[in-house]
Every structure is written in structure tokens, then in C-alpha cells.
Design goal:
With 126 residues, the protein is of the alpha+beta class. The chain has one domain. Helix content is 12%, strand content 17%. The strands form 3 sheets. A 3-stranded mixed sheet has the order 2-6-5, with no helix packed on it. A two-stranded antiparallel ribbon has the order 1-7. The protein has a two-stranded antiparallel sheet with strand order 3-4. The longest helix has 15 residues.
């Protein structure tokens, strides 16, 4: 009976490993050639009343700490306001962030999208 249980467990484990297939695209963030930086407040139909204004200067490529040669897309959200940092109705906003898209650069109809993210907690919040 123990032998049958062992064989069943091995077969069960093998069945659980799905074949995803070949990687069809990846980005190691050596540059932003595959990405478009977005500026604005979503007033042209892509926003949903967010409380932040998107700026290009909030998007950059940085080195991953402790991993020489490994880069990351770094999007910084900041509490700031000023001229031009307004919503679609002209009301002042108190936050800026960054936004990127691959629209018109990369399109994947079928497949698996995988990402690794690191969110820095500040003052007990994400």
C-alpha cells in the first residue's frame, strides 16, 4: 500500500506542473524602448478620477540593490502639488506618480504575464 501511495504522490506532483511554454517577451529594463511614459491626469479618457498627476520624471530605471547588473523600473509616488498638477476640471492635486504603457509597442493576445514587484512601506502604509 505504501508503494502505491508513493507512486500516486509522484504522479500528482508531476500533473500539477503546468507547461507554460516558451517566453515570448521579457524586459530586463536596460532601457525604456518598449514603454511609453504617460503625462497627465487622464482627462483624455484613460483616467478614472485618480488623485495623482502622472509625470515622466517619476519614472526611471534603477539598479536593483544587492544585484549588480539587474535593473528595475522605478515609479515614485510623491506628495506634491504645483502649477499644472491638476485634475481634468482644473482642481489642484496633491500627489504625483508615474505611469508607463506598452500600448502600440508590445501586444500579447495569449499567454502568461509574470512580474516581480517590490513595494516600499512608508509610515506604516504602502
Amino acid at each position: 500500500m505504501k508503494n502505491y501511495l508513493g507512486i500516486f504522490l509522484i504522479l500528482s506532483v508531476e500533473i500539477c506542473h503546468a507547461q507554460v511554454g516558451d517566453i515570448i517577451w521579457e524586459d530586463n529594463f536596460d532601457n525604456l524602448d518598449n514603454w511609453m511614459k504617460i503625462t497627465g491626469n487622464g482627462s483624455w479618457g484613460w483616467g478614472n478620477g485618480e488623485l495623482e498627476f502622472y509625470q515622466e520624471e517619476n519614472v526611471e530605471i534603477t539598479d536593483v540593490p544587492g544585484e549588480p547588473g539587474n535593473n528595475a523600473l522605478h515609479i515614485t509616488a510623491m506628495e506634491e502639488s504645483g502649477p499644472g498638477i491638476v485634475d481634468q476640471w482644473g482642481n489642484p492635486l496633491s500627489y504625483t506618480s508615474g505611469k508607463v504603457t506598452t500600448k502600440a509597442k508590445i501586444a500579447i493576445k495569449y499567454g502568461v504575464i509574470e512580474t516581480a514587484c517590490c513595494l516600499a512601506a512608508r509610515h506604516g502604509k504602502l
